[in-house]
Structures are given as C-alpha cells and as structure tokens.
Write a structure and sequence with these properties.
The protein is α+β, with helices and mostly antiparallel strands and about 160 residues long. The chain has a domain of about 70 residues: RRM (RNA recognition motif) domain (Alpha-Beta Plaits, 2-Layer Sandwich). It contains four helices and five strands. Strands 2-3-1-5-4 form a five-stranded antiparallel β-sheet. A hairpin with a 2-residue loop joins β4 and β5. One of its GO terms (biological process) is calcium-mediated signaling. It comes from Bagarius yarrelli. Belongs to the RCAN family.
Length: about 160
C-alpha cells in the first residue's frame, strides 16, 4: 500500500455510550459539557440521543488530544466514558491517485439493435416455390417399432 501524505486536523471527538441522563436532564448536560470546557472555551457539542453519542468539536487539535488523553475511559455518572477521534471523510478531489479508478464514461447509452430497421434498408423476401416443393417431395419418416429388451434374470436367495 502506498504511503499517504495526509495532514489531518483532529479537532473532533466522539463520546460513545454516554449516559441517557445527559440527553434528558439539563443539569447533567451542563456537567458533561463542563468536563470538556476546561480544555477549550470555543467548544461545540452535538447530541445524538438515539445513538447515545456526543460529537465534541474543539478549536485546536492540541485541545482535542489533551481532552482525549485525560478523559478517555474515565468515570462519568457511574459509567465509563469512551472517546474517539472522528474520522475525516475525503471528498472526490482528495481521493488518492495511486489507486485504480473506473474509466471516464465516454458512451452513455447501451448498444442494442434498433427498434425498427434503419432508413434505406432493403428487405429481400424469398418467394421461391422450390422450397415448398422440396418439403412436399420428401415423405415423412416413419418411426420403426423395436422390441423391448428382456429383463435381467431374477436371482432368488
């Protein structure tokens, strides 16, 4: 695999398995947010209640790294808090050129026969009587009946 030169700005953490009270109680949410506000004043939170996750965006990568190091697997409201860095999604322009890509689409249609004959095509119809005469001249073959082979002898023990 070729080495990829990427400059990632790791400024976003994902908190997993967050206590359900954080999403329902304002006091608990303020307590949760205060854990991270120590590391950065310009922090933003996005709550994902159905996934029990919180997206925490920091202003600098250093603040995010410090918060991850100090708060990962720490206790919060009786449950273990797990923190992960969010992955950066590459746009179409950032895709590494070292990998194979599908060819550029040149033709945007299927190759199939036309629905009607093209203009200018002459259709030749054979109306020869010799074909009909040949079919009548040949007699129909009869199926010859043959005798069924004898069954193998029965062996009694």
């Amino acid at each position: 695999m070729p080495s990829i030169d990427m400059k990632l700005e790791l400024v976003t953490l994902i908190a997993c398995d967050v206590d359900a009270e954080v999403f329902t109680s304002d006091k608990m949410q303020e307590r949760f947010e205060s854990l991270f506000r120590i590391y950065d004043d310009q922090i933003t939170f996005q709550m994902f209640k159905s996934f029990r996750r919180v997206r925490i965006s920091f202003s600098t990568p250093e603040a995010a790294a410090r918060a991850r190091i100090e708060l990962h697997e720490s206790e919060f409201n009786g449950s273990k808090l797990t923190l992960y860095f969010a992955q950066v999604q590459n746009t179409g322009e950032d895709v590494d050129k070292a990998y194979l890509a599908p060819p550029q689409p040149v033709k945007q249609f299927l190759i199939s026969p036309p629905s009607s004959p093209p203009v200018g095509v002459v259709v030749h119809v054979c109306e020869s009587e010799t074909e009909e005469e040949e079919n009548e001249a040949r007699p129909k073959m009869k199926i010859v009946q043959t005798r069924r082979p004898d069954s193998p002898p029965k062996v009694y023990n």
